[in-house]
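Thread: quick sanity check before group meeting

JM: Hey all, I'm pulling together slides for Thursday and realized we never actually wrote out the predicted structure for the chain we discussed last week. Dropping the sequence here so it's in one place. If anyone has concerns about the input, flag it before I start.
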Amino acid sequence: MGTTQLDTVPEPKYWHLKTVLSEALDSEFSVGEILPNERDLAARFGVARATLRQALEQLELEGRLQRRRGVGTTVAPPRMGVAVGSEQHTWPGAVGDAWQLADCTLAVPPSAVAKALETEPDEQVHIVRRSRVTHGQPVAAELLYIPAASVPDLSGIDAPSGAARARAVLRELQHLGLEGQDRSVELGSARADDAKELDRLPGAPVLVVTTRFVAEGGTAAVSVATYRADTCRLTFGDSGGVEIHHDPERRAS
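JM (edit): ok, ran it. Output follows.
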């Protein structure tokens, strides 16, 4: 067979630069060290700043670099393992839940969430906002969407919003018999509010985990959790048994 058109396409200049930069990070810089500014780096490697910027963005996406507001670009520590769910299906807020409650409001959810919940386009739902901290570092922010039909006995709760309201909503949700969960993971960009909560710049790469909770034959709640892609290695199941390291000499366990 002849070569395909893709076989003849040269490697992009920024991709080669990414490899060179990665080797420099390993040999010349330590974790947390601030990199020189883009002008100096571009001059050192003899490339245009646009090419350098593409390489830096790719290294950030791979978790090698972090862009910190007011600090600059620093060498990132190895990704930390963050368990996402377990083989034992449980409601949010159950014993052992690693999330911290922040707030709860009534509002109309995004259209995609409303469709998943099978609510009317203008129907308000409970939106519980939670955050997750690992080793003292914010790693994720979550919006949990719960329709009124899933928590019908909230009439006696006086708090209209806040953490107290959030606790009440999750407590009522656990009265349902959880039948199952399904999850999807996709790469995304941090929105302004998520970026602020996660100490990231808007547009920074994030991992978005969407979880649908099923009870009584329908969708009882939907969680949209945004994880820092530069620091998190998501693990699934009770063992969290797959680890991926930068060092090619180390194997997945």
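AS: nice. The longest strand covers residues 178-189. The two ends are 38 Å apart (CA to CA).
JM: adding both to the slides.
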